[in-house]
Amino acid sequence: MIIGVPKEIKNNENRVAVTPAGVIELSKNGHQIYVQSTAGLGSGFADEQYEEAGATILPTIEETYAIAEMIMKVKEPIEPEYKLIKKDQLVFTYFHFASYEPLTKAMMASGAVCLAYETVEKPDRSLPLLVPMSEVAGRMSIQEGAKYLEKPMGGRGILLGGVPGVRPAKVLILGGGVVGTNAAKMAAGMGADVTIMDVSLPRLRYLDDVMPANVNTFMSNEFNIRELIRNHDLIVGAVLIPGAKAPHLITRDMLKEMNPGTVLVDVAVDQGGCIETCRPTTHQDPTYVIDGILHYCVANMPGAVPYTSTLALTNATLPYAIQLANKGWKKACQDNRELLLGLNVINGEIVYEGVAKAFNLPFAPAEKFL
Ligand SMILES: NC(=O)c1ccc[n+]([C@@H]2O[C@H](COP(=O)([O-])OP(=O)(O)OC[C@H]3O[C@@H](n4cnc5c(N)ncnc54)[C@H](O)[C@@H]3O)[C@@H](O)[C@H]2O)c1
């Protein structure tokens, strides 16, 4: 199969969908890979490395889209890319269709086959192509939180791990899923005094079993949250209710209960945030202060560490890409239900129910096209 890897053109996106290691694996399976010049540069991969791995470098995005039977990307296509996508072309990338109708309509009009990273789903209902980015964001939340706890950055001036004779910082993590668990591991490793809250008792039991001694678990409810925010220095928002907006677990009035200089990192900002006063920020201007409480609410945290994020993402996407390239999308989706669930738009029709519902558009089951 002919695979095209365009350079991401969305603002501040430095990740790339295939690394030179991925090119070697795909080539070994008999596929030809065309990479747009400088596509990998933001993640630390030069054109020469792709060429050595067996890819052909193309100078423009137009040529990369024009030659490919399958496009591998990271972010959803943006407007200038819409017209480059061809009928019957397979596009394998993050789409997040339900949040943007013009993209959905444009992909329907293109006649392409859109397989979305975010809806590829394992039998246990986990989302294998979202997990790596949650791992990155969870770990980063503590790195960023520790930085903003420093006085010159606006925080309380507390060192996360403390020192002998001085207490460490207290870190509260709301939500013990992928983000929360990774945040807890980092905070615990740095010597903080960590509490994770979740509404799932089985999850709390599991975390209690696997976490080190400086991590406590606590049932998440309003009473407990009000109690704990009074004496915690760094609070990480990491809740998710699949398919819904995040619930506001910390409301505006609660800010007054916190110590001035407390740092809030709301990782769930991409689902509306679990802190009422959270609004999306960027890496250029990541924080703001309300009632003396510092808020960090960057919506694409992994974007700051493209080297790690690209490798984490491509480790997860490559096995699926190889199946798609080896078998063609129809046979690959027949053989693997995880990939079948990734199909969102085929030949002008919406085949993912949640997307059709979001815009009140007709839905056709993907099986119809296999
Ligand atoms: N900002 C970013 O750059 C970025 C990057 C990756 C993920 N995220 C977001 O981070 C959030 C968390 O993702 P995840 O992968 O950890 O999800 P997850 O499904 O693995 O975990 C969510 C957890 O929240 C818990 N939860 C639900 N309601 C709760 C409540 N009221 N109180 C406490 N816990 C509650 C669930 O039981 C679950 O354990 C998502 O919104 C995701 O989109 C953001």
Automatic annotation (TrEMBL):
Organism listed in the record: Marinoscillum luteum
What InterPro entries is this protein classified in? Ala_DH (IPR008141), Ala_DH/PNT_CS2 (IPR008143), AlaDH/PNT_CS1 (IPR008142), AlaDH/PNT_N (IPR007886), AlaDH/PNT_NAD(H)-bd (IPR007698), NAD(P)-bd_dom_sf (IPR036291)
For the protein in the UniProt heading, the enzyme class is oxidoreductase
Question: Which positions are tagged coiled coil?
Answer: none
Name of the protein described by the UniProt record: Alanine dehydrogenase
The Swiss-Prot or TrEMBL record describes its family as follows: Belongs to the AlaDH/PNT family.
Which domain of life does the UniProt lineage start with?
Bacteria
UniProt entry keywords in alphabetical sequence: NAD, Oxidoreductase
Every copy of the Alanine dehydrogenase/pyridine nucleotide transhydrogenase NAD(H)-binding domain together lies at: 149-297
**Substrates-to-products reaction catalysed:** L-alanine + NAD(+) + H2O = pyruvate + NH4(+) + NADH + H(+)
Signal sequence bounds: none
Give yes or no: UniProt keyword Oxidoreductase.
yes
Q: What is its EC number?
A: 1.4.1.1
Domain Alanine dehydrogenase/pyridine nucleotide transhydrogenase N-terminal, first and last residues per copy: 4-137
For molecular function, the Gene Ontology terms on record are: alanine dehydrogenase activity
| One Pfam family cited in the UniProt record for this chain | AlaDh_PNT_C
This protein's encoding gene: ald
